[in-house]
Write a structure and sequence with these properties.
The chain is mostly beta strands. Helices cover 10% and strands 36% of the residues. β14 (155-156) and β15 form a beta hairpin.
């Protein structure tokens, strides 16, 4: 008669010996991909468990998807360090953890003085079965009406406070970097004459919203 399996127990933390880092529930980690040619997977640890002897340690994780791993693929406004918090959970060996990382909120990420290799940001939750995003609408900017990509240079109009890609306003990146002040076409002196009284009202319009 086979012996029943010993119950597994939950650990408060675990030190991953090959990287000499201690992880706990709530930490974000980089995990070894099945294909060595691919970048490390990004995951959030939900739980750490071991057998009765404290061995065979496994982590129950919630995966972050990179844009190219989503059903819609990578789009122009996705940042190079952007990930989506998915509804995909897995139990993985703790030995596949390659390091710790930080997944920032979108707002916190844009305020970083420097972005390290282990810095990521998340502004969407992602349903892996349907490809749906939450939220499914975000603020859009510029003439092209695209969501903000923190990797792209943009200039802000001092009149309407909208942001513009230099290429969308016939300007080079070098010219944009040299600007001390900028007014978009609608807010320029010529634009003010055309718009007259409507300009004052336009400055108080709600932020433009577009679907993801």
């Amino acid at each position: 008669m086979a012996k029943p399996k010993a119950p597994r127990r939950t650990l408060d933390s675990y030190t991953v010996k090959h990287i000499n880092k201690t992880v706990k529930a709530g930490d974000c980690v980089l995990m070894r991909p099945s294909d060595p040619a691919k970048p490390s997977y990004v995951a959030k640890i939900e739980r750490i468990e071991a057998d009765g002897r404290g061995a065979n340690v496994k982590v129950y994780v919630r995966w972050y998807y990179r844009p190219e791993e989503s059903i819609g693929g990578r789009r122009q406004f996705h940042g190079s360090k952007e990930v989506f918090l998915s509804d995909h959970f897995d139990l993985q060996s703790a030995d596949t953890i390659e390091g710790k990382c930080t997944v920032h909120s979108f707002k916190s990420y844009t305020k970083l003085d420097a972005v390290g290799n282990d810095d990521f940001f998340c502004r969407f939750e992602y349903k892996s079965s349907t490809g749906a995003f939450d939220p499914d609408r975000v603020a859009v900017y510029c003439k092209c009406e695209m969501p903000y990509n923190p990797d792209d240079l943009m200039v802000q109009c001092e009149g309407c406070n909208d942001w513009f890609h230099p290429a969308c306003i016939n300007m080079s990146a070098e010219e944009a970097k040299r600007l001390d002040h900028f007014y978009c076409e609608n807010c320029s002196s010529e634009g003010q004459k055309k718009l007259q009284n409507s300009h004052t009202a336009s400055r108080h319009l709600d932020t433009k919203i577009g679907r993801v």
